# Entry
Amino acid sequence: MRLKIAIQKSGRLYDDSVKLLKDCGIDLKNGVNKLKTESDNFPMEIYFLRDDDIPQYVEDAVADIGIVGENVLYEKNKKVDIIEHLGFGKCRLSVAVGRSEQYTDCGDLRGKRIATTYPVLVRQFLEKHKVDADIHEISGSVEIAPGIGLADAIVDLVSSGSTLFMNGLKEVETVLQSQAVLIRNGEMQEAQQQILEKFLFRIRAVKKARNTKYILLNAPNEKLNEIIRLLPGMKSPTVLPLAEPGWSSVHSVLNENDFWDIIERLKEAGAQGILVVPIEKMIL
Ligand code: PRT
Ligand code: ZN
# Structure
């Protein structure tokens, strides 16, 4: 019994999807340009597909689970469940208009021609805002549509914003915030379900570790209490005496988001020789 997972064959989600499997200790048999491969050390079969096809394959149970962007998932609207947000492939689906256009709110889109590869999401967005506009579905290079007179506005994925900028466009509305998610077929056999539980346990340990750093520092004993108060730790920080009398070594973990703030306060409190190291896995 193997758990079948569909991931993107090539493109923006490929590297992070393969890295996630690798970080979960799942080795893939070599074979570039293959449609599918399997793992030597985990009961998993990996299908390489176009991202647009992944929701359908999971709905049809050709694959049990899949990794796909929320943008594709909601556009395709298939009967699958989201199990986990994966934290990569982050982008937003945005409305953009010419940089010199006046724009105050969605009402300005009324009667306009909007080019997009996401007609379903754009229609929902316009209905929500009670705006009538013409949706022109095109299959790619959406950003050039206003420049060649095909549309007045576009709805496309944006990450850094440089594509819009280079095409003389400005972002005016966010239709959807998106990231890669793990999806599953609603009905799965018990054996696959159990493999999925194991896989999820590993994914959560990897995600937790990615957001956390291990910190080691030296502190004069008289400052220990103050420094320990700054460090959350998993339970509480580990404190070990240094060979030099009057000094201790303190070990703990830090959340990536609080990281710089806490480091500054630790220095002010008298911490020295601060080392911060990545954590590979974290099981709580
Ligand atoms: O061949 P296949 O159909 O599998 O791939 P694809 O060409 O349809 O998709 P791909 O590989 O481009 O993107 C896969 C997924 O990555 C998308 O569905 C999103 O979930 C996610 N993602 C994250 C992005 C971006 N960021 C992104 N910036 N997908 C596309 N873009 C494009 C965008 O369309 C625009 O052309 O990048 C350009 C904008 O980037 P910035 O940085 O200039 O703003
Ligand atoms: Zn695609």
About this structure: Helices lie at 14-23, 54-59, 70-76, 119-128, 162-166, 190-210, 224-230, 259-268. Residues 190-210 form the longest helix (21 residues). The pocket of phosphoribosyl ATP (ligand 1) is lined by residues 8, 11-13, 50-52, 69, 71-72, 89, 91, 156-163, 178 (CB under 6 Å). The mean pLDDT is 95.
